[in-house]
Specification:
This protein has 408 residues and is α/β, with parallel strands linked by helices. Among the domains are: 78 residues, SRP54, nucleotide-binding domain (Four Helix Bundle (Hemerythrin (Met), subunit A)); 199 residues, P-loop containing nucleotide triphosphate hydrolases (Rossmann fold, 3-Layer(aba) Sandwich). It is 55% helix and 10% strand. It contains 15 helices and eight strands. An eight-stranded mixed beta sheet has the order 3-2-4-1-5-6-7-8, with helices on both faces. Helix 5 runs antiparallel to helix 8, helix 8 crosses helix 14 and helix 11 runs parallel beside helix 12. The longest helix has 34 residues. The protein starts with a helix and ends with a helix. The structure holds guanosine-5'-diphosphate and magnesium ion. The site of magnesium ion has 5 residues, from helix 9.
């Protein structure tokens, strides 16, 4: 079983990273680690104080001078520099490891609901049925549909499974669980690169357009993304293209203040006009990243399409090849409804990536697989909470960990 053992090793690798960091800092959760603690541990690895080397600095022809011993050799300025460098590297590696552990923990917590529902049911299935029969398949089908893997995906999946059961003469339901996990991930990883990063402009501002129906988390995602890139040292501007809904412009402006992003917006006016003026300002101010909020009215598809077309035209006029990304925001708690939203938006504009929000509040984590199978647009980020830090790049390995760690 190639993939399953690979998944198993991914999970234990992730577990080890988290455990090591927890032990080193003596915490129950990575979230508890404070800035100062990181510095303290880094200081501990620094070398102890050393004595001065002045006594050996005598002219060579003086006979009585003692040979400098090994310890003193180590105190030459060159070595000191090396030491500083080594400490710096150690400190950076330490920080990276904490970051990694933090991210794994976020996936763990954010996918808890899905895991509890989906995986515990799957394990129960292995206990309940000792034989793989029709009833078994029926119940498995139900579990997958409840996790929002998507009916079409489930049907194809069950067919594939039946075939394997027949061909490999599988009777043991526990072993079949391994086959299930294996096949689910074949759906996601088939012929794809595993990282789908944000495409950044080589020169001038990168422009990202955010689309999606009301309430899915567009504005919050913009705030989270601004926070992420500001922390990385980028100059970020938000443009409020959702100009007609009461309070929408203010909500974004509030987030701009909190994250330290620049802001451009005007209420009750043509969105494309606001984008036009905002982009002039962004270029004047040498902004690196422009995040554009839009209205989410889908009642009238033609109007929405026209509006997005107009906005896209304005953007391209200012910045050739922009927008560099058009991200569709989908609320994971809406399940299959999110999939049909994706299909509708796909018909009216070119989407380059999906952000799946509110995964923390749902047992429908299987929707990631349905998106892959039915919409085939990469999920680039996932929302695992309401805070600024709760947006994470979608990472299939962390996702596997969050979803299946209890099954192994
Ligand atoms: N739990 C959770 N709540 C979220 C997440 N993303 C957004 N929200 C909440 O969803 C609600 C609507 O978000 P908003 O950004 O205003 O949606 P918009 O209408 O698409 O701009 C807000 O209360 C957010 O705090 C997430 O990843 N997890
Ligand atoms: Mg909004």
């Amino acid at each position: 079983m190639g993939l399953f053992s690979k998944l198993k090793s991914i999970i234990s690798k992730k577990e080890k990273v988290v455990e090591e960091v927890k032990e080193e800092y003596q915490v129950d959760s990575i979230e508890e680690i404070e800035e100062e603690q990181i510095d303290e541990v880094s200081e501990e690895v620094e070398e102890p104080e050393e004595e001065s080397v002045e006594e050996i600095e005598e002219p060579e022809d003086v006979e009585e001078v003692e040979e400098p011993n090994d310890e003193e050799d180590a105190e030459e300025p060159d070595d000191e520099e090396d030491e500083d460098w080594a400490n710096f590297i150690k400190e950076q590696e330490n920080k990276k490891k904490i970051e990694e552990a933090k991210e794994i923990e976020k996936y763990d917590k954010g996918l808890e609901k899905t895991r509890k529902e989906f995986v515990s049911k799957l394990s129960m299935l292995g206990i309940k049925y000792t034989k793989v029969d029709e009833e078994y398949f029926d119940e498995l089908e139900e579990i997958l549909i409840n996790a929002d893997v998507g009916v079409n995906t489930v049907m194809k999946f069950i067919d594939k499974l039946r075939k394997r059961v027949k061909e490999e003469k599988i009777t043991d339901t526990n072993y079949l669980n391994e086959v299930i996990v294996d096949e689910l991930f074949v759906i996601y990883v088939e012929g794809e690169s595993l990282t789908d990063k944000i495409h950044m402009a080589e020169e001038g501002p990168t422009v990202i357009l955010f689309i999606g129906v009301n309430g899915v988390g567009k504005t919050t995602t913009i705030a989270k993304m601004a926070h992420k890139y500001i922390e990385e040292g980028k100059k970020v501007m938000m443009i409020a293209g959702d100009t007609f809904r009461a309070g929408a412009v203010n909500q974004l402006e509030e987030w701009a203040k909190r994250t330290g992003a620049a802001f451009y917006g005007k209420e009750n006016t043509d969105p494309a006009g606001v984008v036009y003026d905002g982009l002039i300002k962004a270029k004047e101010d040498n902004v690196d990243l422009v995040l554009i909020d839009t209205a989410g009215r889908l009642q009238n598809k033609v109007n929405l399409m026209k509006e997005l077309e107009k906005i896209n035209k304005v953007i391209e006029k200012h910045i050739p090849n922009a927008p560099h990304e058009t991200l569709l925001i989908i609320d994971a708690t809406t399940g299959q409804n999110g999939i049909s939203q994706a299909k509708s938006f796909q018909e009216i504009t070119n989407i380059t990536g999906i952000v799946l929000t509110k995964l923390d509040g749902t047992a429908k984590g299987g929707i990631v697989l349905a998106i892959k199978e039915e919409v085939n647009i990469p999920v680039k980020f996932i929302g695992l909470g309401e805070k600024m830090e709760d947006l994470k790049p979608f990472d299939i390995e962390n996702y596997i960990y969050g979803l299946f760690k209890d099954l192994m």
